[in-house]
UniProtKB/TrEMBL annotation, chain B:
Entries under InterPro entries matching the protein: ABC/ECF_trnsptr_transmembrane, EcfT
Subunit relationships: Forms a stable energy-coupling factor (ECF) transporter complex composed of 2 membrane-embedded substrate-binding proteins (S component), 2 ATP-binding proteins (A component) and 2 transmembrane proteins (T component).
Name the record gives this protein: Energy-coupling factor transporter transmembrane protein EcfT
GO molecular function: ATP binding; transmembrane transporter activity
Family: Belongs to the energy-coupling factor EcfT family.
Function as written in the Swiss-Prot or TrEMBL entry: Transmembrane (T) component of an energy-coupling factor (ECF) ABC-transporter complex. Unlike classic ABC transporters this ECF transporter provides the energy necessary to transport a number of different substrates.
Pfam families, A to Z: CbiQ
Length: 282, 265
């Protein structure tokens, strides 16, 4: 069995003053170094799970519940150790920018951990450089674009040296170009720092590039598996309020018509080439 | 729009910009105290020369200083005119009922006028060359002794710097809400006072809810980044005292001495 950085067992959470649990008996694992995507409707409990993993919300009491991150079991005592290992990039770029300038914001997490100033300066410079914002080091947030603010948020998280980054719909308020740039940046820092990514998203194209997809509906985990496994079942994706990517739609239709598509064809470009070749043979 | 409300800082790089906000705030307070030492023409002359030299040292256009004085010009003129008509003493040039123009009246009204303008100029030097964040940092340092009285100075300072940072965002939000309501036919610019107040309420409510959302989001983000209420923190941004600040304090100490020597006892 592969090393899991996150183990979640029988996790439930009910918001105060509500009857139905927002998260209902959910269990899953996240392999170390993987990119795992959580998809689901609005209000399916996705963001609640992110907050539960970081100890911002505490799960309903149940002796079987277990949240383990990098070998540490989450409880009220270990909450702050867990937060050294987990960083969250939230949805709204403005509402997570605490500092008055880019460098101040990046330093915020370090200040909280009482890192000496000299050490802070080196780290801040390093991580700002990593996200390509050195030119804006002294800028105030109102002069930055949404994508640039998300870069700063990523830098602030990298400064702490976490093992896991949770993206809580971090790109949903960005335009398509900005979205692609942020995702590319996250892939880059994932590689450079050996991170695990847990991404909560509506973007099916992003999900299709993940190692593992979790499908959540009304607080219950419907399925988990690789994109190829998950996208076989169109109704499953529809129940999560999403549309299949074009490639999988075409592929599923071809299979229905009795045309076999080989395993190694796993993206749009390869499928186009394959269909052209097929056409030539006919 | 945001520039107008959160201070009128203008970027620059003259000597005044190199000074520490703590020194600048202390000097400004000192100035407001020692200005009351001046009580004759010679002392007022020195006061004005020192102030104008400080204004000149900012290397900013005179117009920006005039913009600082302009909103208060009627108040200044009104106070000066009161002094002019109601002060008695010395030679009387004109008399009508309780009003009179006397030698002392003229002198006092000119002194009051100078005093007002100089205070505004010096505080304008402070606000034009210091960002609101620097002022907040400087105030935090000055208020530090309150920590011994269990006043959470560091927390107050964090709240202030966050509040400053969200002013432009809330202003943006207000403009957006107003535009949305204008698009649906709301009219903010006509009608009497009561009607105008009425039309403000539909702006305030969404703005208020919006700021609550921001506060909740921000609190979550801060907690996720390891912020613990009341816990000790280190500081990334620090203020640095340099030779320019000794020049600054020396300059105003010199002015204090000159005023003490030239004033009439």
């Amino acid at each position: 069995m592969k090393d899991n950085i996150v183990t979640v067992q029988h996790l439930s959470f009910t918001y105060k003053d509500t009857k139905h649990p927002a998260v209902n008996d959910v269990s899953f694992n996240i392999p170390k170094g993987s990119w795992t995507t959580l998809v689901g409707h609005n209000g399916s409990g996705k963001s609640t799970i992110a907050r539960l993993l970081d100890g911002i919300l505490l799960p309903d009491e149940n002796s079987e519940t277990l949240i383990q991150i990098d070998g540490i079991t989450l409880n009220e005592k270990t909450m702050w150790d867990i937060r050294d290992k987990v960083g969250i990039v939230f949805q709204n770029p403005d509402n997570q920018f605490v500092g008055a300038t880019v460098e101040d914001d990046v330093a915020f997490g370090l200040e909280n951990r009482q890192v000496p100033r000299l050490k802070m300066q080196t780290i801040v410079h390093d991580v700002i450089n990593q996200v390509g914002m050195l030119k804006f080091q002294k800028s105030e947030p109102q002069y930055l674009s949404g994508g640039q603010k998300q870069r700063v948020a990523i830098a602030g998280i990298l400064a702490i040296g976490p093992k896991l980054i949770i993206l809580d719909e971090s790109t949903s308020m960005l335009d398509p170009a900005g979205k692609d740039k942020i995702l590319a940046l996250i892939r880059k820092v994932q590689k450079e720092n050996g991170l695990t990514i847990f991404s909560i998203t509506h973007d099916i194209n992003e999900a299709s590039q993940a190692d593992q997809i979790l499908v959540l509906n009304q607080g219950t985990l419907l399925a988990s598996g690789s994109p190829i496994e998950i996208f076989k079942d169109e109704s499953l994706i529809k129940s999560a309020g999403l549309e299949l990517p074009l490639f999988y739609k075409v592929k599923n239709k071809l299979i229905k018509r009795g045309i076999t598509v080989p395993q190694e064809i796993d993206n749009e470009k390869k499928l186009v080439n394959y269909l052209c070749q097929l056409n030539l043979k006919m | 729009m945001s520039k107008i409300i959160i201070g009128r800082y203008i970027p620059g790089d003259s000597i005044i910009y190199k000074m520490d906000p703590r020194g600048k705030i202390i000097a400004t307070f000192l100035f407001i105290v020692i200005i009351f030492l001046a009580n004759n023409w010679l002392s007022y002359l020195f006061l004005s020369v020192f102030t104008l030299l400080a204004v000149w040292a900012t290397k900013l256009k005179p117009k920006v200083f005039w913009d600082g004085v302009k909103p208060l010009i009627w108040l200044i003129l009104f106070t000066s005119v009161l002094q002019l008509f109601f002060t008695t003493g010395g030679k009387i040039y004109w008399h009508w009922g309780i009003l009179n123009i006397s030698e002392y009246g003229i002198q006092n009204s000119i002194f009051i006028f100078i005093r007002f303008v100089m205070i505004i100029l010096i505080s304008t030097v402070l606000t034009l060359t210091t960002t609101s964040l620097e002022i907040a940092d400087g105030m935090e340092w000055i208020l530090k002794p309150l920590g011994y009285l269990k006043v959470p100075v560091a927390q107050i300072a964090l709240v202030m710097s966050i509040a400053l940072r969200f002013v432009p965002i809330l202003l943006d939000q207000a403009v957006r809400i107003m535009n949305a309501q204008r698009a649906r036919g709301a009219d903010f610019n006509s009608g009497g006072l009561i009607k105008r107040i009425h039309s403000i309420i539909p702006i305030l409510i969404p703005l208020f809810i919006g700021s609550l959302t921001i506060a909740i989001d921000l609190a979550t983000a801060m907690e996720a980044r390891g912020y613990r209420e009341g816990a000790k923190r280190t500081r990334y941004r620090v203020l640095k005292w340099s030779k320019y600040d000794w020049i600054n304090l020396g300059y105003f100490t010199l002015l204090t001495l000159i005023l003490l020597l030239t004033r009439t006892y």
